[in-house]
Amino acid sequence: MRRHNRTLFRVARAILRDDAEAEDALQEGYLQAYNAIGGFRGDSKLSTWFARIVANQALMRLRKQARRAEIVPLQPGAAAGHLNEIPDTDMDQTPERSAQRSEVRRLLEANIDALPDDYRAVFMLRAVEEMSVEEAAAVLKIPPATVRSRLFRARSLLREALAAKIDLACEDAFGFAGARCDRVVANVMQRIAKESA
Questions:
Q1: What is the tens place of the pLDDT at every residue in 32-86?
Q2: Based on the number of CB atoms within 10 Å of its own CB, is 33 exposed (0-12), middle (13-18) or buried (19 or more)?
Q3: d(Cα 154, Cα 94) in Å, to the nearest integer?
Q4: pLDDT (average), residues 181-196
Q5: I need a labelling partner for 182 at 20 to 30 A (CA). Which of 60, 134, 156, 192 fits?
Q6: CATH number of this structure's domain 5-70
């Protein structure tokens, strides 16, 4: 389990987009695999077989969630046909979303600051201040064609810098080590012991 936990958790998490649901799907997948291990024919790698089982568990959970979402409860004591009012909330205003935007902004600002001076000035005027090519050229006293080429190069440099950071972060995305891994292993082993008893 420890060898495959992170990969299988990421499979379930990609489908369900919820850590707790993904953990549950992973545990159910392990139990299903344990009970069906005698039927493993070896046509594929064991990890692929596990991943297929966990993906199926996650998809089943997703279908159940969709069915539950279709049920709209009636307001208690209200006349038939009147549905609960769903509060109009702006999901982008949550503290989590604000923190995410702040983090992305800090990352972007740091990478803009790292651009060479000529490119940074053009990028700020064109992309951030939304000046036209002609306005930016007048401010910087350079030809419009130079503004266009520097903006193109600045965007390329930013993409490369951000892509490098994203590549480094991808390996750590949806981590599944330490206490979380131990908890899943312990839960699965406990359930197997109960079923065997």
A1: 999 999 988 888 888 888 898 999 999 999 888 887 776 655 555 444 444 444 4
A2: buried
A3: 32
A4: 90
A5: 60
A6: 1.10.1740.10
Please, what's the b/e burial string for 132-141 (b: 16 or more CB within 10 A of its CB; e: otherwise)?
ebeebbeebe
Arch. (CATH architecture) of 103-170: Orthogonal Bundle (1.10)
133 contacts 147 by C-beta, under 8 angstroms: yes
> Which amino acid is it at 186?
A
**66 burial type by CB count under 10 A (0-12 exposed, 13-18 middle, 19+ buried):** exposed
DSSP letters of 150-196? HHHHHHHHHHHHHHHHHHHHHTTTT---THHHHHHHHHHHHHHHHHH
Task: Read off the pTM.
Answer: 0.57
Q: For the chain, give the mean pLDDT.
A: 84
The pLDDT tens digits of the residues spanning 86-101 come to 444 455 578 888 888 8
Report d(CA 5, CA 33) in Å as an integer: 13
* pLDDT at residue 142 tops 90: yes
- Domain ranges across the chain: 5-70, 103-170
49 closest CA partner among 103, 11, 88? 11
Residues paired with residue 74 on neighbouring β-strands, in sequence order: 83
